Amino acid sequence: MNEPQENHDGPDRDHQRPTGVDDTTVEALGALSKALETTERARGRLYDFHQLTGSADLQLDRAVRLLEEAGHPEWAAKVRSEILGRNVIPGHWTFQIVEAYNATYYRPFQQLETSAVQELAQGRDHLYEAQMKEERRTPGHPDHGSGLPNADL
Question: What's the pTM value of the predicted model, to 2 decimals?
Fold first, then answer.
């Protein structure tokens, strides 16, 4: 039989606002985190682009084979020489675009956000969201607990 979950007051230790961290700093770190999350989504789209383009290139093998089987060797040769393995932008395949994005933009952004949270909030992440959760909880409701059951406050 399941025991009822405790309904702790306030966020768990990892999401409590450190002393001296003001509302504007919490809001700023929340905005920075949201921007990084948006970047994560953009990065996912970039990986979608990379994988879809690679899949299309591999599908060309079948098109080339079928064109040859159908008696159109000139079209098979044209697809093979003009499109198969072609750069998507001058000098680059999609993996190189992903690598450049990660090195030039994503990793520096990720490192900056981590450093800001470490320096400005003692490494406590998602303070803005934890505050929002506290404001929206229904006290005493079993599904509105602040953290995990038996969380160490």
Answer: 0.77
For residue 60, which phi and psi values (nearest 5 degrees)?
-65, -25
What are the residues whose beta carbons fall under 8 Å from the beta carbon of 63, sequence distance 6 or more?
Answer: 79
Residue 67, both tokens: 């064109």
DSSP string over the chain: -PPPPP--SS--GGGSPPTT--HHHHHHHHHHHHHHHHHHHHHHHHHHHHHHHHHHHHHHHHHHHHHHHTT-HHHHHHHHHHTTT--SBTTB-HHHHHHHHIIIIIHHHHHHHHHHHHHHHTT---HHHHHHHHHH--TT-TT--SSSTT---
* pLDDT single digits (tens) 95-107: 999 999 999 999 9
* Phi and psi at residue 73, to the nearest 5°: -60, -30
